[in-house]
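Worked Example 4.2. Consider the chain below.
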Amino acid sequence: MKDFLQALRLEATNAGTSTGAQWLSSTGSQLNSYSPVDASLIGQVTATDKEGYEAVVAKAQEAFVEWRQWPAPRRGEVVRQIGEALRQHKDALGKLVSYEMGKSLQEGLGEVQEMIDICDFAVGLSRQLYGLSMHSERPGHRMYEQWHPLGVVGIISAFNFPVAVWSWNSMLAWVCGDTCIWKASEKAPLCSVACQLIVQDVFAKNGVPEGVSCIVNGGREVGEWMSNDHRLPLISATGSTRMGKEVGKAVAGRMGRSLLELGGNNAIIISKDADLDMSLIGCVFGAVGTAGQRCTSTRRLIIHQSVYDTFSKKLANAYAQLSIGDPLDSNNHVGPLIDTDAVKNYLNAIEACKQQGGKFLVEGGVLQGTGYESGCYVKPCIAEVTPDMPIVQTETFAPILYIMKYDTLDEAIAMQNNVPQGLSSAIMTLNLREAEQFLSAAGSDCGIANVNIGTSGAEIGGAFGGEKETGGGRESGSDAWKNYMRRQTNTINYTNKLPLAQGIQFNLG
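Applying the procedure from the previous section yields the following structure tokens:
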């Protein structure tokens, strides 16, 4: 067994259902976690059955009644200790993330650091859950608003960020006074078990009621239970647009709230006034980081025609230097795709691009031979396209980069915006006027718009999310905490009279 699995107390077979202190037995099927790194069976997780799901929800509801009454700073102190525990387990958890889903070790460690960062953010937030006060039109009245915990929050996360996105939701929800039920991706279930083991130790030391942190595991059926469950007032779901539409429909049908972080088809505009050497770093990492399996991965480069040839050559030279292999080897830039189904999608997209007239500046393909036995390693590739090709409108979770030319900035912005998704975007330019136009209301239509940095690698301090088919959700920083609370407007009359608003007269007797 890998040393980091032992450090995280993972076993060959793990229960996949937990109410915190308890791990529940289940009649569910076994989820086998195979590493895309070497095709090894890392471990098994027992999927949650309906009886276990009902027990989890009941315990989360029960815990909410007590947890919501803990002072927010006290809840924040618990989250602070979780951050400390994550610091202690950073190396082991980062390796698990890298090994179970295939991202480079640097990115795996970075994902755990993101968890630590959101803990720090949440601790400060626990003393800043501010409401507003406002002046009443009625004399002797005071008006204000306050925020109360929402209830049991359901979190459905994706394989590509198997721990960080859960932490974005759970740490904020916990300081807000909510309890959480987490369904991890069935492609990376061991990460959820490892995180629960870390959290339950901290909770036990602090007397946190059982049910504040719950996990369930399984396939689509478990996600459907959560989406249709009126006892979960908020469902935060990360994944494909197709999945998000189903979740959103189900939650809306019961008048619940959904926080959706869905697909991205992100573009970087390379201006004639760009620093091309600096731009290269952001473009290459954005396109090949996590093997192109980030929702913020760079899918499109819109390059000014005057620098197109020069920058294309720089890209091709950079791609030739990429090292592809075992992500636990820090010398490698690119690891595997998550599974062979992802490889098939990658190959289908390449073939579709060719049929539509795309020409490959850097050819793709599946790597074979020693070190590539899992069949999940592919070559990052670059295709020269035109923006009207249907393939450019779609998101393929793989390292395929489409490049195209533009003449005017208005044209480039229109090309960038002319896709169904609206998550992340960037422009590389040293021209202040171009930068400001890109960030204006007439510029990028994405939830994230950057200047002189790439599309991926968002910091936790800003609200994360996008528009259009990206779902409209916002997680992590800024005032995203409001998603996990309910707003209440309060008016207090401290006189012996009862004037009505809007000057209405209602006299009795």
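Residues 266-463 form a domain with the Aldehyde Dehydrogenase; Chain A, domain 2 fold (CATH 3.40.309.10). Residues 105-125 form the longest helix (21 residues). Compare this with Example 4.1 before moving on.
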